[in-house]
Amino acid sequence: MTTAWIADFLDQLEARGIPAREAPAPGLAPARLVQVDAADWGRLAHAARDFECRWVAGWGEDGGDDLLVNACFEKDGAYLVARAAVKRAAPTLPSHAPYYPAADRPERHTRDMLGIVFHDHPDARRWTRHQAWKDTEYPLRQDFPVAGNRPAQTPPDDGYGFLRAQGAGVYEIPVGPVHAGIIEPGHFRFQAVGEMVLNLEERLGYVHKGIEKIAAGRDAAGLARLAGRVSGDSTVAHAWAACMALERAAGVKPPPRAIGLRALMAERERVANHLGDIGAICNDVSFTFGFYQFGRLREEWTRLSRSAFGHRFMMDRVIPGGVAADLDVQAAAAMERQIVSLRNELGGLFNILDDLPSLEDRLDTTGYLDPATAKALGALGYVGHASGVAFDVRRDAAYPPYDALKVEAPVFKYGDVAARVKVRARETLASLNIIETLLARLPEGPIGAAWKAPAAGAEGLGLTEGFRGECLAYVRFDENGRIARYFPRDPSWLTWPALEILIRDNIVPDFPVCNKSVNGSYSGHDL
Amino acid sequence: MLRILGKIQRIGVVTEPLPKIEEPALAEVGAQIKACVGELFGGSLAIRQVDAGSCNGCELEIHALNNPYYGIERFGVHFVASPRHADMLLVTGPVSRHMEAALRRTYDATPEPKLVIAVGECGANGGEFGVSYASCGAVTNVIPVDAVIRGCPPTPLDLMRGILEAIGKQSSR
After folding, report:
1. Which residues of A touch B58 (CB under 8 A)?
2. Where on this chain does Mg(2+) bind (chain A) (predicted)?
């Protein structure tokens, strides 16, 4: 990580006539905070893009007379949060979306939730809002009641303006929100000719359950529980990010053993998801052998997580100040044995996947995402890694205990489904090495630090690497030591748009395998 | 191909006679499910799973029902792609307001007689999310529910037990 670019960037802003004031923000550290005028919001993004910063996340907040807008950038592993205030009476400012496609949906989300208008945003359509509240109501405003003002029954979401394709032989396929498999709900609108997909448009927001709103007023432990349910498959990653933010805001330091156990759980979560998804990808191309073998390995892995930590997904095991479950000697030994046997089995299975002609036929060149597009979208995790974007929080913005570990982040440039499978296979093996090191070096001592609520207004930023990539959590406390604002940014925000692009020119029957190879979280996105 | 066959032979069948894992009663659970399914559903119970707002935790465990350890299909239980083919809806929650209409329509599209099971703490009572501007809370707030499987998420064994209880209740009607 190097923060050298931030000083240069601030100079650059000055040279462009953009007044920027760096403000102290101890809870955001190591990220830094810079405040700019709302009128310069768009030019700030322009400068950041010229500086080759990555657009990480954007969120808003009701600050009373003012509404606050935040955007987080990253370069060389150093994060910079930019903030602007707009008047509640006229909450309008320029958009980042003309410079960063990644900002498109987050800004529409902020508009739907807070009524902040990004006036030159290229897409005026709503995003998170369906029909549960009116377009003149903003759930994240403080005067909006948690219970809402809704009619007895929520009507279906008709009338969203999908892009229409026209021409001889072009037809539309609407899919969802209730899908054919055991999958989360969302709507996909395809335009196709014959079997070829011309265009895909995603319509998400179906599992919006008001996470940001109902976070307000919770205590720290309650927030960690909620964070663990932003996306159930990433419960450790999100709970850890939230706890990191809470702890930075409150100046609480979790003890070294708790840090080691958090990483152990996070790596176990990564391995479980990769095993399950590699199997599911095999299933989507009718290679059921792979489905059952990887499903078997995932089940064995999940069972040991349960016997070690008391929960198959390790939900509610990361808590503010530390962890809720210690690891005993027997469980640690069982993990070591399991890794030896799993590594052995995976060696054989990956060899089979590697040179099976039918898999090669279905996975190679399918769902291609070119490196330039992946970079422009800010794609994260295995989607980014398969298309040349190497960022991994554990290595590039290392947080304890990863700052003392070697993290391998395999990168390919082929950008197809096969490359995404390969990244996940390599990451699985790398995680096994990390777990072995963590077990060998696990410090003795307590597994939790006493929680103490911080002063009013204290804010914190947490960043972890979940199995899908970088998870961000922002928190701010109120005057009662409770949560005033929580914003989790799942990596899916940045990989869902990639799916729309990589499916083009593929055949409709390859959509499931393309979708699974990206595996965006609906819940983590819809909030 | 030989490697694949070799692997299959070496691993053999891992599918468990369920009792080994947790409860002695579960050997019978499987057998009972099979018997009930045989009697009530002509040997085949078709389940349509509906995620009406879940965090995806419950879905992971429902997926696990199809892995080789649980192999729920051996009891005549299988998951289908359309509510029109279903005897049972397995609904995870909380029901988001944005899924409310879709869930009602799915329920209406399922032919009678039908069973509805609400899955997970959220499906049972709203869980961490409760009732809000965005959430209807429990599944029963939106469609009639016959049985509930608690847990966050319920384990695959909890799910099997819950499914059996629900069809058992149905047969005693």
Report:
1. 232
2. 212
- Given a contact cutoff of 8 angstroms between Cβ atoms, the answer to whether B101 and B129 are in contact is no
CATH code of the domain made up of B2-171: 3.40.50.12280
For residues B73 and B78, what is the distance between their CA atoms, to the nearest angstrom?
A: 5
DSSP category for residue A155: P
Name the residue in chain A with its Cα closest to that of B154: A312
pLDDT digit string (tens) for A451-479?
999 999 999 999 999 999 999 999 999 99
Chain A nearest C-alpha distance from B139 (Å): 14
The distance of Cα A405 from the centroid of its chain, to the nearest Å, equals 23
For domain A211-526, give the CATH superfamily: Cytochrome-c3 Hydrogenase, chain B (1.10.645.10)
Report the chain A residue with the minimal C-alpha distance to residue B69: A296
pLDDT category at B172 given cuts 50, 70, 90 is low
Query: Under a CB-based contact definition with an 8 Å cutoff, are residues A36 and A43 in contact?
Result: no
pLDDT confidence of residue B21: 47
ipTM of the complex: 0.93
Q: Which residues of A touch B66 (CB under 8 A)?
A: 295
Q: Tell whether residue A212 is among the known ligand binding residues.
A: yes
Instruction: Search chain B and give the residue with CA nearest A211.
Output: B129
B133:A522 CB<8 A:
no
The CATH classification number of A4-118 equals 3.30.460.80
Among A475, A512, A501, smallest CA distance to A249 is for A475
Query: Average pLDDT over chain A, rounded to whole?
Result: 94
Tell me if A20 sits within 8 A of A14, measured CB to CB: yes
Largest Cα span, chain A: 70
Q: How far is B168 from chain A (nearest CA, A)?
A: 24
Least confident of A151-165, A212-226, A388-402: A151-165
Distance (Å) from the alpha carbon of B125 to chain A's nearest alpha carbon: 14
Contact A289 B7 (CB under 8 A): yes
Map out the domains of chain A as residue ranges: 4-118, 211-526
